[in-house]
């Protein structure tokens, strides 16, 4: 590639990046009070560009003199949108592996909800999406797109709620959908006393890398299904520890370990111990 072609390529890349940046900002402010300010900012930029192109000395001097002030004003005016954009950038799959600590707040809400539901003997099935998308299962339920909180989860699984049947699916900090249908495990070696919720949790854990929390109505016990294994009768501390362990596993480490279908009743071993 000649130097001239290299300069053209850099110019095209520069234009492309600026276009993408302005487009993303436009998407962020669309439908907000900042939209009109964004249009005004673009107008000022165009005036400054025209002043330099046509050598309008007075306009160019004004634009150059207020350049620093406009930069500060831009940060102040668009602070919520900039914060939201940076948060979305940090939630991409590539960077999420470096920021797993952010999920611990969500795990705390989930643990608190599971403990409350167990105390009330309300059955629940909570799915925490990891690396494998669960879109097919989300489409079987009712879309919510609400922020995760213990209060919301407890309300959804209350007997009077129209969405208490089925599973709730969480993605990062969002309750994606409720009343979702999960596949039942066909493993014949599962303990006979396990009900539909536990079999559904194991079925999904055998097909995906999701972590599935089960709260039993009868025994008020809390279980976690992951990679075809079911850990039962967990207390609050054990549940928190198990979820933290699962979300610390990196994709490359998980790929080296195959799914192991439940072969026996682990709760019997725990009781015997």
TrEMBL record:
Its EC number is 2.7.7.85. Coiled coil: none annotated. Residues 254-273 are annotated as: Disordered. Residues 262-273 have a biased composition (Basic and acidic residues). Pfam families: CdaA_N (PF19293), DAC (PF02457). Residues 79-236 form the DAC domain. The chain crosses the membrane at residues 6-26, 38-63, 69-86. It catalyses: 2 ATP = 3',3'-c-di-AMP + 2 diphosphate. The keyword Cell inner membrane does not apply. GO terms for molecular function: adenylate cyclase activity; ATP binding; diadenylate cyclase activity. The keyword tRNA processing does not apply. Keywords: ATP-binding, Cell membrane, Membrane, Nucleotide-binding, Nucleotidyltransferase, Transferase, Transmembrane, Transmembrane helix. GO terms for biological process: cAMP biosynthetic process. Belongs to the adenylate cyclase family. DacA/CdaA subfamily. Probably a homodimer. Catalyzes the condensation of 2 ATP molecules into cyclic di-AMP (c-di-AMP), a second messenger used to regulate differing processes in different bacteria. This is Diadenylate cyclase. It comes from Eiseniibacteriota bacterium.
